[in-house]
Write a structure and sequence with these properties.
The chain has 76 residues and is an alpha+beta fold. Helices cover 39% and strands 25% of the residues. Strands 2-1-3-4 form a four-stranded mixed beta sheet.
């Protein structure tokens, strides 16, 4: 599984990356977490508002930082 955090490196983007890592860890998932900060790559996902989260290339969250519990539900 590949988890991609899309954002320019703001505080919310860092929080989303941290929460995604915690959710994956609590679920004992074998995954790679990648931070994408390049605006052209972010727009390539069709995302215009950050932070955003993609799982295996599919955008699941845009413009907010969901709770660890909500992220765990997305990752199952």
């Amino acid at each position: 599984m590949k988890i991609q955090v899309l954002g320019t490196g703001c505080q919310k983007c860092d929080k989303l990356a941290e929460s995604a890592a915690k959710a994956a860890s609590e679920l004992s998932l074998d995954c790679e977490i990648e931070k994408i900060t390049d605006l052209n790559q972010i727009m390539g996902f069709g995302v215009m508002l950050t932070p955003a989260l993609a799982i295996d290339g599919e955008v699941k969250v845009v413009g907010k930082v969901p709770s660890v519990e909500a992220l765990k539900k997305m990752l199952k």
